[in-house]
Amino acid sequence: MPELPEVETTRRGLAPALAGRMVTSVTVRNGALRWPIPAELPALLTGRAIGVLSRRGKYLLLAFTHGHLLLHLGMSGSLRIVADNTPAGRHDHVDLVLNDARVLRLNDPRRFGLMLWLDGDPALHPLLAHLGPEPLEAEFDAAYLLQRSRGRKIPVKSFLMDSSVVVGVGNIYANEALALSGIHPLTAAGRISRARYQTLVGAIRHVLAHAIEQGGTTLRNFVGSDGKPGYFRQQLQVYGRGGEPCRRCAAPLKEVRLNQRSTVYCGRCQR
DNA sequence: ATGCGGACCTGTTAGC
DNA sequence: TGCTAACAGGTCCGCA
Fold first, then answer.
1. For chain A, what is the total number of helices (H) and then of strands (E)?
2. Nearest-CA residue to the C1' of B4?
């Protein structure tokens, strides 16, 4: 579920509901996420005014005057605003009850997400300190990728999915951006030219920005009902299409596993 | 330093 | 139809 566009969509959807609100209580039903939710979290948040909701990569940061709540949705997490009398369902692990009879509710079946408390500057926290640039910011460009990749032998797809190189490029978008760029996913990162990285940067920006745009639609499902967004399905070039014809040359798309992740590409269009 | 594989956990689907 | 294995949008950690 949560690729960067999903997380950004979540952020945009939640921000108005949280603005000017205060936390009146916190319920932790199951704190056994990827990392345990700190036992002191309810005490830290109760009675506190909520500040800005921001995003770094796929992390969400909810500002308070005395620190930040760090959130990650992992593979299966979602955040929704519901009325405070809405019964908690399966995998509804945490509620932040707000002072307007509503609740910010975290649901995460696989519990790969996290919810931690950060004192001080979030950028210095170990989980955030070593993150690479945001793919939609100007500092992420061909020169940067070229510099980071020289001498690296890992497949370019793995390189792109390394959050210390660039944040927010998950399995779907790594596959998609490489397809749009005509780059074979197994090519050694260090052997890709500046010109091809230029193309790749454009492709990454394109797929992410496009998906965020579409997120407006997803948003309502995501925050409102419980719909699984199928919004990007029809536009996928390769992801989930192994064996099906390439949209450009009609050759059957190849599918291999790389770092235990499904990797799909056209053997003819991607070199 | 680099690159790989395992680990975390539950739900859904493909295959026998 | 029923059981089992594989796989799923992430990413941190430890090992060679």
1. 7, 10
2. A259
